[in-house]
Design goal:
The protein is an alpha/beta fold and 144 residues long. It is 58% helix and 12% strand. It has a single domain, classed as 5'-nuclease (Rossmann fold), CATH 3.40.50.1010.
């Protein structure tokens, strides 16, 4: 089994990296995620998560951009980005229809993260448990 790491986890880790000693973003991410997952468990980022953290780089002020970019590029070098393929698209379509029918939604990006995890039979690691718990059949791991 594997884990799709949500943007909220990376945002929290970036804040920790900024406030802690300069031991390197990759080392920090590795240590923190190792506290929650088995060493043999695969980790991945949904493609939308990569987009969200890269968007944060582009939106950062000139003073913060270099640090944010270094953190994001470090994360992208150690956690593979998972494709949004036809299997994920099918899972997304079903999930979207089911949530719409029940009058519940979690937001477009969270649906894409969840669909990526569901298509692989993986869990989602998030600091935003409230959204992901609304999705039937999705195993959610809170990471703070």
């Amino acid at each position: 089994m594997g884990v799709v790491v949500d943007t909220t986890v990376l945002v929290d880790l970036e804040r920790m990296a900024q406030s802690g000693p300069g031991s390197g973003a990759g080392a920090l991410v590795g240590r923190r995620l190792a506290e929650h997952f088995d060493v043999d468990e695969e980790l991945g980022l949904a493609a939308i998560t990569a987009s969200e953290v890269l968007h944060g780089v582009h939106r950062a002020s000139p003073a913060h951009r270099p640090g944010r970019e270094a953190f994001v590029e470090s994360v992208l070098s150690i956690i593979p980005v998972l494709d949004f393929d036809l299997l994920a698209a099918r899972a997304h379509a079903r999930l979207w229809a089911d949530l719409a029918s029940s009058g519940t939604d979690v937001g477009a990006h969270d649906r894409l993260v969840a669909a990526t995890a569901i298509s692989l039979g993986w869990r989602v690691a998030t600091a935003n448990v409230r959204h992901f718990e609304r999705i039937p059949g999705l195993e959610v791991v809170e990471v703070r």
